[in-house]
Every structure is written in C-alpha cells, then in structure tokens.
Amino acid sequence: MRRLTDETVLAVGRLTLAATELEYLLAHIGAGQVDGGLAAIFTASGEPLRAARHVAQRVSADRRDEFFGLVEAAATYLVQSRTAVCAMWFESGSVDAATFDEIANLILRCRGRLQALLDELESTPPALPRHR
Fold first, then answer.
1. pTM beyond 0.70
2. Are 46 and 62 in contact (CB under 8 A)?
3. Domain range summary for the chain, segments of one domain joined by +
4. pLDDT tens digits, 39-70
5. Rounded Cα distance, 40 and 47, in Å
6. I need a labelling partner for 23 at 20 to 30 A (CA). Which of 2, 15, 17, 79 fits?
7. Within 10 Å of residue 28's Cβ, how many Cβ atoms?
C-alpha cells in the first residue's frame, strides 16, 4: 500500500461510515425476516443485502420496481466502495480522496432515497410486508 495523505485517509473513513450506514439500513429492512433480527443480519457478511432483496420481492406491486431498484443500486455502490478501498493495495491503483468522497456521496444519496421510500411504505400498511 502506498503512503496516503491525511485527506485520503479521512475520505476513506467517510466512505467506510457511509457504506456501513447503508448496510445498517438494509439490515433494518430485513430485520424481521431471520431469527436474531437486526443484530444477526447486520453482523453477518453479505446478509443485509440478501435480507433487503428478500423483502423487496414482497413489496406491493406498485412500488416493487422502485424499491428493488434502490436495493440493487445500494449493492452496486457497496461493491464500488470495496473496490476503491482495495485498489489502494496495488501500485497502479491511484485512488484519491475525491474518488472516495464521490462514492460516499452516491451511497448517502441512495441511503436517503431508500429511507424516504421505506418511510412512505411504512405509512401505507399494505405496501411493505410486516415483520414477524
């Protein structure tokens, strides 16, 4: 790994926190779907996304495409986040603070849109499957 500027280290931190916040929301979405609830989903690698995808399939038909699209966007951004961080370990991987911040901003916008949709769906009971 090459030596990083303080700015890049801070940007990696912002990206990591944004990605973790998005995974937490995904885990919250699927919390009623497995034994152990939120903690079990959030702490298992890949489980927040899998659980949210499962719930997305059960959202009312009129909102399913939008919900599923946001969950899949979240998946894409989480992969981009991990790829950018891993790129720091390669000589040719010149990833700077601006790149990390750009991905973090995409993640936070996706998280915000997903939270807004979730809030809307929860206010209309038939739209979102209820937790067990």
1. yes
2. no
3. 6-122
4. 989 999 999 999 999 999 988 899 999 999 99
5. 8
6. 2
7. 18
